[in-house]
Hints:
The protein has helices spanning 33-52, 55-71, 73-84, 88-106, 142-155, 170-178, 197-202, 216-226, 251-263, 283-296, 315-330, 362-365, 381-389, 404-411, 446-451; strands at residues 2-3, 6-7, 12-18, 23-30, 113-116, 122-129, 132-137, 159-164, 188-190, 209-213, 232-236, 242-245, 275-279, 334-336, 352-355, 372-378, 393-394, 396-400, 418-421, 436-437, 440-441, 454-461. It has 463 residues and is α/β, with parallel strands linked by helices.
Amino acid sequence: MSIDGTLVGSAQEFAVINPATEETVARAPDASEAQLDEAVNAARSAFPAWREMAWSDRANALRAMAERVLAHQDVLSDLLTQEQGKPLRDARGEIIRSAEWLNETASLSATEEQRISAAGRIHQVRHVPLGVIGAISPWNFPVSLAIWKIAPALLTGNTVVLKPSPYTPLTVLKIGELFLDLLPPGVLNVITGGDALGPLLTQHPGVDKIAFTGSTATGRAVMRSASATLKRLTLELGGNDPAIVLPDADVDVIASKLFWAAFRNAGQVCVASKRIYVHEAIYDQLIQALSKLAQENLPKPGHAENATIGPVQNKAQFERVRTLIESVRTAGGRLIEPAGVLPQTGYFIAPTLVDNPPEDWPIVQEEPFGPVVPLLRYSDIDDAITRANASPYGLGASVWGTDTDAATEVAARLEAGTVWINSGAAIDPVAPFGGHKQSGLGVENAREGLLEYTNIQVIAHSA
């Protein structure tokens, strides 16, 4: 772990499992409560000097961090595939995108404004850092979603205590080590631990804000825990993201894009297409095209040659997805599963389609977060929009069709933080990203996400 500029271990450790082999990759430190206190105190002590540093110097620190990540992309990519399971090319993509995010964030600013009232009073509107940020990142994109929090927090003058998921701590620990000589001691602290550590961090009185990515259920617990000291919150939570395929969609054009919008990272993407509403005129053609793609993309270990889909990341999620699939089978639903032999060890599930299940089945109502997707027929677009919006979630959505004006009209009626036209899960650092309804609070990325790490301060001068 990285605490106050020093690498430290812990008296207790936990195993990190390779989901492709079910073998232990390594053992990670299980931080004690005293070590959490040390990390928070180090961040608190480092805050005043870091806050006073010139914005340009903090931006240059982010650029140096990006350069360091790229210089070590081989070892980081390999480690990420071992602990997360995703194909090596996808792991490398995540590492490279993380460096790009650092550079893009470094170009942002929180410019001070001056506003003058009718009476002539001058108001300086400033954005000042919050203090110590407690960042908690998930296991599906361990590096990039950690960087989403680290970069804006540091740029705006905050210090950070980062806790990655216990399923995927290793690459983030390595990155903390790589950054040690690029930042003053205590500015970025990386600690790891099991389920007990998260609540200790979220309720810690020395932490001013929690930035969390994870499930809605855990997000509620984070919110309760943070309430005692009214910590600021950014919560990026679950989604059950609908895709609506319009009758004029060209199946040959969209099938591959839609398949990967649903099954990239074995479906373990917060904004993956998780319910696909398809007009009856092209339903059969599209399900046939997606079935063919599923057959061509059987999951393999992430280090295997030509791997495009890896295993589900952990056993608990593997069992949850299998239970959802079996619920369809038990209820008499039609599953479209590719033929082929999967690896005998590891948490492998083939990309699976569910043919037009009833709307009230769990496979439709719940977020699978795995490689299984229901396709649902519709004939009337108003009905499809109503069904798509009938969810407590509102993270992402997508609309697919040849007439982009018509698709945009449909998109504007969907209750989601981001709606893509003819693509899916294409998150960009220039666009704010956040959820509606129970998919979260606040936004990440772009200037709007940057300002989530600040308080507004107004200095008012009399006329």
